[in-house]
Amino acid sequence: MPGVGPKTAQRLALHILKRPEAEVKALAQALIEAKQQVGQCSICYHLSAEPVCEICRAPNRDSETICVVADSRDVIALEKTREYRGKYHVLGGLISPIDGMGPDQLYIQPLIRRVSQQKIKEVILAISPSIEGETTTLYVGHLLKPFTRVTRIAFGLPMGGDLEYADEVTLARALEGRRDLD
Amino acid sequence: MYLKALHLRQFRNYQDQFLEFSAPKTILVGDNAQGKSNLLEAVELLSTLRSHRTSRDRDLILAGESIGQVTARLERDTGAVDLAVTLRSNGRRTVSLNSESLRRQFDFLGILNVVQFSSLDLDLVRGAPERRRHWMDALLVQLEPVYAYILQQYNQVLRQRNALLKAIRKAEGRGDGEIGRWGDRENEGDDFSQALDREANPLATLDQLAFWDAQLALTGSRVIRRRARVLQRLAPLAEHWHQEISGQTEVLQVSYAPNVGLAQDDPQQLQTEILVRIQQKRVAEQYQGTTLVGPHRDEVEFAINRSFARQYGSQGQQRTLVLALKLAELKLIEEVIGEPPLLLLDDVLAELDLHRQNQLLNAVQDRFQTLITTTHLGSFDAQWLNSSQILQVQAGQLMPPVR
């Protein structure tokens, strides 16, 4: 399992063996139910137990802004900020020919359809600045630009980070993405 | 900078060996396969986080152990620094600086600077172009640690782009267009995509290629500019040394021969130039399924008295040339860093005649700390032996020399 080394795995296994049977059954049941019920939202492709996810259904969210992310994990991370009130679109990965991931393996086409058919004011690309992320950002941005305003999130210094401790690459990026003082 | 002490634990054939450097020159003498080069390799690892002998950490750890460690104390003008690299046979290595573990390994680069000169380097002039690119890149990382990141980015783009070109070739070969299913025809007017349209619809893939082209141009231009700059600075130094060593009889010319280059240094134009060249090679690239344009095909050219050293240089000339390059590296690093780097001479001194040994000695003096490995002291000039710390290496252990 990702993020779990052999020692932690052993500890988890022993812990489960020590718990009462009912509790273990409940856990097993929960895992099975999660697997059976959680699918993808038919609009944004975020994880969802319903055909359309909670975020897409929410009436009080701004439906004219879409934030594009690579993975459902990114939606969860952005939601924790409670700063974003728009909708999402999960691509389901990044363009990576080495792994056989091309645009067709991602939910890019449904995104274009969403943007071209609905009234969308802005699409925010929130994709990691790796080589694959950059290429995906360029690709998706290029396809969306005819329809709406396309922005990307800024990259730079972490909060609480000291300028002098930032590495050269991060600093260069922060400098690149500078903006006018308002 | 001065390497004060080195401690190897379960590293290569060393169980637990502490070594204090007591003189500017340390000579490690011993038979083959006793661990002389392993010790130099440990210093190389601290400097570059790489070994020129292996890319697997497992190989660096004492057989049968799961963890190995190299620690060192380095004195720099700014103060003493404790360096440590911990290697694991199953898992990632960790590096620490003054007992504080570093999250980004790039931060470890550029603290200990070394120039390596081994008998393998005698091949630098005649060997494949790849050797010269490696040499140039290793020097760049020492001078500008961020280059390690720049090069890694370029190589990643290259791998991805090659994978894509192979996928395109495969799809064309089959002609079933399985990889392309995307209706938005941005490039209707493009001759080439229309030509491919006959087959099926690999527009998505070809469309995608344009973005990898852009990435290749962006990251590639960064590599090219830094390489051009470093050779521009190194060339006069190397040319000076070659003239010195050859007794003013030979004129060396070092030049960067980039696969894509420009007379003037303009990042935007360079990117455009790369894209133009990619266009020209488009058909060939898709036919071969690999990237044919970019700094991974760069070359460094050496000419002695206006003829190419690679084809025409004699053994002696090539030795003079490599020695001149190494001396130039020492000087350049000293100039840029502001402190003299270490010199690692692995099994190479005996390959130089007394004249060249003396040239090297005069250039190095006591300013550059030097670690030397050799199988026997016989071929050394007496000057080298005086004032050197001499250690015998035997089966992974250091001991005073047998007289």
List the helices and strands and how they pair.
The complex is a heterodimer of chains A (182) and B (403).
Chain A: H1 6-18, H2 21-37, E1 39-40, E2 47-48, H3 54-57, E3 62-69, H4 72-81, E4 86-90, H5 108-117, E5 122-125, H6 131-144, E6 149-152, H7 168-176
Parallel strand pairs in A: 3-4, 3-5, 5-6
Antiparallel strand pairs in A: 1-2
Chain B: E1 2-11, E2 14-20, E3 25-29, H1 36-48, H2 57-60, E4 67-76, E5 79-88, E6 94-97, E7 100-101, E8 114-118, H3 129-143, H4 146-174, H5 191-197, H6 203-245, E9 252-257, H7 267-280, H8 282-288, E10 299-304, E11 307-308, H9 309-312, H10 315-337, E12 342-346, H11 354-364, E13 370-374, H12 382-385, E14 388-394, E15 397-399
Parallel strand pairs in B: 3-13, 3-14, 8-12, 12-13
Antiparallel strand pairs in B: 1-2, 1-4, 4-5, 5-6, 6-7, 9-10, 10-11, 14-15
Description:
With 182 residues, chain A is α/β, with parallel strands linked by helices. Helix content of chain A is 42%, strand content 14%. Chain A has 7 helices and 6 strands. In chain A, the strands form 2 sheets. Chain A has a 4-stranded parallel beta sheet with strand order 4-3-5-6. A two-stranded antiparallel sheet of chain A has the order 1-2. Chain B has 403 residues and is α/β, with parallel strands linked by helices. Chain B folds into 2 domains: 1-113 and 339-403, 3-Layer(aba) Sandwich (Rossmann fold); 124-337, RecF/RecN/SMC, N-terminal domain (Glutathione S-transferase Yfyf (Class Pi), Chain A, domain 2, Up-down Bundle), CATH 1.20.1050. Helix content of chain B is 43%, strand content 22%. In chain B, the strands form 3 sheets. A 6-stranded antiparallel beta sheet of chain B has the order 2-1-4-5-6-7. A 6-stranded mixed beta sheet of chain B has the order 8-12-13-3-14-15, sandwiched between helices. The longest helix of chain B has 43 residues, at 203-245. The model of chain B is unreliable at 176-202 (pLDDT under 50). The A-B interface holds A 95-98, 100, 102-104, 109, 112, 131-132, 134-135, 138-139, 142-143, 167-169 and B 104, 106-107, 145-146, 149, 153, 156-157, 159-161, 163-164, 167, 179-184, 186, 204-205, 207-208, 211-212, 214-215, 219.
